[in-house]
Write a structure and sequence with these properties.
heterodimer; A: mainly alpha; B: alpha/beta; Rossmann fold; six-stranded mixed β-sheet; globular; cell membrane (chain A); transmembrane (chain A)
């Protein structure tokens, strides 16, 4: 019994310790580069909580991160590494905006339709590597990485040639497809916070429900842990692989829809990857692929990125430091073995005394 | 008489448990000394103390009468203690020689002296009759050969006292025979051996003396010559154990399983089941005896739908299931205790309860409208845990943390509770201790008496002889003979398994 408790506690301790180490190392870097870490971190925290506008922007930033984190985690639970969340998010963004522009309908139909469009596009982008993996044993990491480039360039092609409105972007979507909220914007001092944040919370609940409460989720997890035992028990392993990649892609696609329908209300030619999808890998890793963990780590990363602006303005610390801290946190999570080792050393010393 | 190894009053604690409580082990020069105990009794802990992986809380270790502190495995090495691990520690893509010299490479002017290494390895191999090719790659040689490489490794490092940790667990009967010969050669060359095992027959065959431990406590040391399998088992388990499986004569009825002219290919496309015919009737246990690799695995996979048969038919209770997928086979009334419980039998990261429901989770009342009913699932799991005596803290414990015997009981609970017409048990007692083996054999016979057909596939001849009513001998993918279990013995079966009577014609 004590062992189990220890194990669970440890699951929470490792991300927390990793975050601590990340900030500690970040502070040392600030010292070396001639900044005062205390001023820097105070500015960072003020940049997240110090103003209701910053806080609204933080929630807005974390919305797509929640979705990309869920997408990575969902596939991971089935034993698959979906590196293609970036591409799935891009096509989801584009298709949802497309639906938002070309269709005219009352909001109650139009908005769900636009989100669904994003979900289907993302699902298709996950379905392809899923089928290739299940049918021909092509490794999903390779396929999804390539699908990312295909997504970006295909979307850019369509926008450039058929939908270019002004400069680098499409027209605005119809209001009936927009997630923007005057109310949420007003209570956060006119930030870009939109209804998508609530949808993201619902999505966290949805993933938890699918994986842990449904028959399909049982099969997906079983396949993820042990393919052989799953097929022995009569589960269709290949079908579950395809399904898992598709659902994962759908989560990512809806994440893209949140950006397209909520934050910007348009799509634009992408000069490079948005990184929202890639950050999902970090979010899922830090959140140990659990819904609640993903929500919290999306908040952390969203907040860090938002707070970086203020850190530069107030304390003169380069905003790239935040990227370094995030990278260090991930490094420490990934090297949880090291943390375990240090922890056990400290424990045994305590016992010795 | 001087002892080469003395471990006196060893005590080793782990948080919450005492793994070794006042155990004494004394090994004489030139003997094979058995260390006997059930799974989890503390055998491995004791050996790891000797090998320097653990430090004991109390007690002393003497090597050749001199008190020593074995602080790490290098010290053990220097003292001439070598360990042949149960799970081999070999680099698959290296050659035999490269593996053996790894860590103590002979160096000549800064480069590895390969020629000398190969010669040294070949010399040691010859001297002890190991017959290992020094230049073969590990991935190309059999499990038995890999084990000999492990033995060579210890000898190359100058070991005089060899610890064998469950050495026969992964070996075929033929390889076991050869290993026993090798051990005798080692003794003749002046080595001493500690054999960790829970197989009584092996102890009777090769060992001189035997130290028994039970639940971390030393029970005593006996001369094997003065002991019987029964007396050793009693010491190990702490109560009387019967090896004779008690059962009444079978009352076979109609055919449940009938296989006609079955052909199955393995993953490489080579025919491994070649025109196999077999019938199993309700109310009887048919044991399939054969040397490993004669098509047993593929036969089971074909019946259970995990592998597609090339041709032929498989009938269960009048239904042609040849082309069925696993789930449909299960639903047609087939229960399957798989031979590899970690690979096929369990999802180790799932709870015991989830594993018990692994074949039925999708049925009512466990699933309704696609949503699982966990309270109902765990209620059922609790019932079966109770009924099948699965020792687990509760139904929500990870399957991984259970002992092998209890994991197997969970699988048996799952498969038997569905009351399948045909129960396939593949190596159901592999790696289990006496108590668990007894339980499983009793369950199989109970199922038979309830009128089910049981197909038992095992590499342990004793098991096949004791539990089966009739024995089908498989050789190169065919059933070459079916004999009555009461009217045969190991010798006859051994001959048949080696293909000795293949020309005798069709099975009866």
């Amino acid at each position: 019994m004590t062992n189990m408790f220890k194990g669970k506690l440890f699951g929470i301790m490792i991300p927390l310790i990793a975050i601590g180490f990340g900030f500690l190392a970040g502070g040392i870097i600030m010292l070396i580069s001639g900044n005062n870490p205390i001023t820097g971190y105070v500015a960072l925290i003020q940049g997240i909580f110090g103003d209701i506008y910053y806080f609204g922007e933080t929630l807005q930033r974390m919305t797509p991160l929640i979705f990309s984190g869920l997408a990575v985690a969902f596939a991971f639970r089935t034993g698959l590494l979906n590196i293609g969340v970036e591409g799935q998010l891009i096509v989801g963004w584009f298709v949802s905006v497309l639906v938002g522009i070309v269709i005219e309908a009352p909001m109650i139909i139009h908005l769900p339709l636009a989100i669904l469009g994003g979900a289907l596009a993302g699902a298709l982008w996950g379905f392809v590597p899923g089928v290739l993996k299940a049918r021909f044993q092509v490794h999903e990491v390779i396929v999804t990485i390539m699908m990312n480039y295909i997504a970006m360039h295909v979307v850019n092609h369509f926008i450039r040639n058929y939908m270019l409105e002004s400069g680098q972007r499409t027209a605005f979507i119809n209001d009936s497809a927009s997630l923007s909220s005057d109310y949420l914007s007003a209570i956060t001092d006119f930030s870009r916070l939109h209804w998508g944040f609530l949808i993201a919370i619902a999505a966290c609940f949805l993933m938890w429900f699918i994986l842990w409460k449904t028959k399909k989720g049982f099969e997906l997890r079983s396949v993820g842990y042990n393919k052989h035992a799953s097929s022995y028990a009569g589960m269709n392993v290949n079908l579950n692989i395809i399904l898992s990649m598709s659902v994962s892609g759908a989560f990512a696609g809806v994440g893209g829809a949140m950006v397209g329908l909520g934050t910007y209300n348009y799509a634009n030619i992408l000069p490079g990857f948005t990184n929202l999808g890639f950050d999902g890998i970090a979010v899922a890793l830090l959140g140990s692929s659990t819904s609640i963990g993903i929500f919290l780590s999306a908040f952390l990363f969203g907040g860090l990125k938002e707070g970086a602006n203020n850190m530069q303005g107030q304390a003169g610390v380069a905003p790239e430091l935040v990227e370094i801290i995030i990278a260090l946190i991930i490094f420490f999570v990934a090297s949880s073995y090291l943390i375990r080792w240090i922890y056990s050393r400290v424990q045994s010393k305590k016992e010795g005394k | 008489m001087e002892y080469v190894i003395e471990m006196n009053n060893i005590r080793k604690e782990f948080p919450g448990i005492v793994a070794n409580d006042n155990i004494t082990l004394q090994v004489k020069q030139g003997e094979i000394h058995a260390l006997l105990g059930e799974n989890g009794a503390g055998k491995s802990t004791l050996m790891n103390v000797l090998f320097g992986l653990y430090q004991p809380e109390k007690g002393e270790i003497k090597v050749r009468g001199k008190k020593v502190e074995v602080t790490d495995p290098n010290v053990a090495n220097d003292l001439g203690i070598g360990m042949v691990h149960q799970h081999f520690m070999l680099v698959q893509t290296f050659t035999v020689t490269e593996n053996i010299i790894l860590g103590s490479e002979p160096v000549n002017k800064g480069t590895i002296d390969h020629r000398k290494a190969v010669k040294d390895v070949a010399d040691i191999s010859d001297r002890y009759g190991l017959k290992v090719d020094p230049n073969a790659k590990i991935e190309d040689i059999s499990v038995g050969m890999q084990q000999r490489v492990e033995i060579l490794k210890t000898l190359y490092r100058g070991a005089n006292i060899l610890i064998f940790d469950e050495p026969t667990a992964a070996l075929t009967p033929q390889e076991i025979k050869e290993l026993i010969q090798i051990m005798k050669n080692l003794i003749n060359e002046g080595k001493s051996i500690i054999l960790i095992t829970h197989k009584l027959k092996e102890i009777m065959q090769v060992c001189d003396r035997c130290t028994v431990i039970r639940r971390g406590k030393g029970i005593g040391t006996v001369d094997v010559a003065d002991s019987t399998e029964n007396s050793l088992a009693e010491m190990m388990v702490g109560r009387e154990v019967s090896f004779e499986v008690e059962k009444e004569a079978a009352k076979p009825k109609d055919n449940v399983l009938s296989i006609k002219d079955l052909h199955v290919e393995d993953a490489r496309g080579i025919g491994v089941v070649n025109g196999l015919n077999l019938n199993v009737k309700a109310g009887e246990i048919i044991g399939v005896a054969g040397v490993d690799g004669n098509g047993q695995t593929e036969l089971i996979e074909a019946i259970t739908g995990l592998r597609q048969a090339k041709s032929g038919t498989i009938n269960v209770s009048g239904k042609d299931i040849t082309a069925f997928k696993p789930r449909k086979v299960t639903e047609a009334g087939v229960g399957h205790i798989p031979q590899d419980r970690h690979k096929h039998g369990l999802v180790l990261e799932f709870t015991v309860g989830e594993n018990i429901l692994l074949q039925t989770y999708y049925q009512k009342p466990y699933t309704k409208n696609g949503v699982l009913n966990y309270p109902k699932m765990y209620e059922k799991a609790r019932e079966l845990i109770e009924e099948y005596d699965v020792r687990t803290p509760n139904e929500k414990t990870m399957a991984r943390s259970l002992s092998g015997g209890n994991q197997q009981k969970a699988i048996i609970a799952r498969e038997v509770d569905r009351s399948p017409d045909l129960l396939i048990a593949a190596q159901p007692t592999r790696g289990l201790d006496v108590g668990a083996i007894e339980f499983i054999h009793r369950k199989l016979i109970e199922e038979r008496d309830k009128g089910r057909a049981v197909l038992l596939v095992s590499l342990e001849l004793d098991e096949v002889l004791n539990v089966s009513d009739r024995i089908a001998v498989i050789y190169e993918g065919e059933i070459v003979e079916i004999v009555n279990a009461k009217e045969t013995d190991e010798k006859e079966l051994g001959l048949l398994m080696a293909g000795g009577k293949k020309e005798a014609g069709e099975p009866k």
